[in-house]
Prior knowledge:
226 residues, alpha/beta, Rossmann fold, DNA polymerase, domain 1, 6-stranded parallel sheet, 9 helices, 6 strands
Amino acid sequence: MSVALAGIAFDAFGTLFDLAGLSPRIVRRVGERGGAVFEGFAARLVPYTWHLTASDSYRPLPEVAQEALLAAAREAGATLDEAGARDLAGGLTELSTHPDVAPMLEGLAGTPLAVLSNGTGDGVEALVRAAGLRERFDHLLAADELARFKPAPEVYALATTAFGAKSNGDVLLVTAHEWDVAGAQAAGLRTALVAREGAPTGFLGHEPDIEVDTLAALPEAVRHAA
C-alpha cells in the first residue's frame, strides 16, 4: 500500500463494538430461548439491510434490528412483542468495544480516523460517546445520511469526502466482515480485515490489502504497508 492515507474509517458493529453484548439483554427479556433469538437476529440483520438497498428501499437500522429480532423470536418460539423488540434494538447504542480497540487507537494517535456505520447518525454518536471514544474519531459517518446501506458505493464515499481525500483509494476501510471488504474495494477504497470471523475466504474474489488477527496489530501493519 504505497499511497499515503488521508484517513482510516472503521466499521462499527462487529469491528469496533461487540454485537454479542446484546445476547445477555435478549436472554433477560425472553428467557432460555434468548441465545437462539440472538443467533437468529445476528443472522438476519445484515441481509435485511442488503435487501432494502437492493430494492431501493430504506428503513433506519433500529427499525431493521427490531424486525430482525421479531422474526428471530418467532423462529425460536420465544415471546417478544414490538415494544420489547424496540427496547432490545435500543441496545445497539450501548455495546462495549472489543478489548483490542483501545491499544489500536493508541497506536494510531495522530492519524485521522472515522467511524463509517450502517447505523443512524444519532445512534452512532450515542454508541461512541457511551464508550468514551468520541474524542478519538474525527468523523462519525452513518448510512442514514444517504438512506442507503453498505455496500452501496456512495456510503463508502462518505469517508472520502469527510477526510478531504483526492480519491477513494486514499482511504483505508477497516472491517471484520469480508462482504464489507468486497464492497469497499469495489468502491475503490483500500481495505484491512480483522479476522474476527475466521480465516478469510476471498469473498467474490476480493482479498484485503491488510489482514490482521487483532486490531491491536493494525497500527504496525499500516506502517509496514505504507
